[in-house]
UniProtKB/TrEMBL annotation:
It comes from Hermanssonia centrifuga. It holds the Pfam family PUF. Residues 24-247 form the PUM-HD domain. This is PUM-HD domain-containing protein. Keywords: Repeat. It comes from the Eukaryota. Transmembrane segments: none annotated.
């Protein structure tokens, strides 16, 4: 198929998707998308927060407003999302950004309640394209106790997460942000260092270990690297682990 024809078909498909999406929009969201003159405020969309969060333009609007919103405005937005709609928006292409803003700009109580809705779902969220971003943001903003809950939910599947395109970012963030004594899953790396070192995502996780964990945690891992250093130096991913030894 020629490039011009492919582009034409893609353009037609995008228009059909836009038309289908428009058919399900509320009148308020349609007005918001079309009215470029009115100065919109968060109070104007109350009752429609979830719908706006799932819309590209509505999501951007909420994100921007949350950065300077009053406590009352933040609470109003929070109440429409948590707990009933939080998991839905966490995994949404546009909604996840709104949830991230709640973790950044919400009160500590709001962050705690929002994180509570994620408990029991940390593994599937970590493996999901948008959910993994929210899990990372949550790790940065919740209490050490809630961080521990996240860690424990991933303990049994940590190697799966390490080798996953999305999950590895969550493991890296946990290593960067959580106290080492709470990271029981690091023990799972022992006996798997060569395999992880030669994996495109595993090598990144090991690098974070060497950068952020004390020697008592990294020494067993480094000992394994030493044993296969020659092979790792010649591997496109393993050479980074070898470099850490030199540093």
């Amino acid at each position: 198929m020629s490039a011009p024809l492919q582009a034409q078909q893609n353009g037609g498909r995008n228009r059909r998707q836009e038309e289908a999406s428009a058919a399900y929009r509320s009148q308020l969201l349609e007005e918001f998308r079309n009215d470029k003159v009115r100065k919109w405020e968060l109070r104007d969309i109350l009752g429609y927060v979830v719908e706006f969060s799932g819309d590209q333009h509505g999501s951007r609007f909420i994100q921007q407003k949350l950065e300077t919103a009053t406590q009352e405005e933040k609470q109003a937005i929070f109440d429409e999302i948590v707990p009933e709609n939080s998991l839905q928006l966490i995994q949404d292409v546009f909604g996840n950004y709104v949830v991230q803003k709640l973790f950044e700009h919400g009160t500590q109580m709001q962050k705690t309640l929002l994180a509570n809705t994620m408990e029991g779902h940390i593994l599937p969220l970590s493996l999901q394209m948008y959910g993994c971003r929210v899990v990372q943001k949550a790790v940065e903003n919740v209490s050490p106790e809630q961080q521990s809950i996240f860690v424990k939910e991933l303990d049994a599947s940590v190697l799966r997460c390490v080798k996953d395109a999305n999950g590895n970012h969550v493991i890296q963030r946990l290593i960067e942000r959580v106290s080492p004594e709470r990271l029981e899953f690091v023990k799972s790396f022992r006996g798997n260092v060569y395999d992880l070192s030669t994996h495109p995502y595993g090598c990144r996780v090991l690098q974070r270990c060497f950068e952020h964990l004390p020697e008592e945690y990294t020494r067993p891992l480094l000992d394994e690297v030493h044993k296969c250093a020659i092979h790792l130096m010649q591997d496109q991913f393993g050479n980074t682990a070898s470099l850490r030894i030199e540093l």
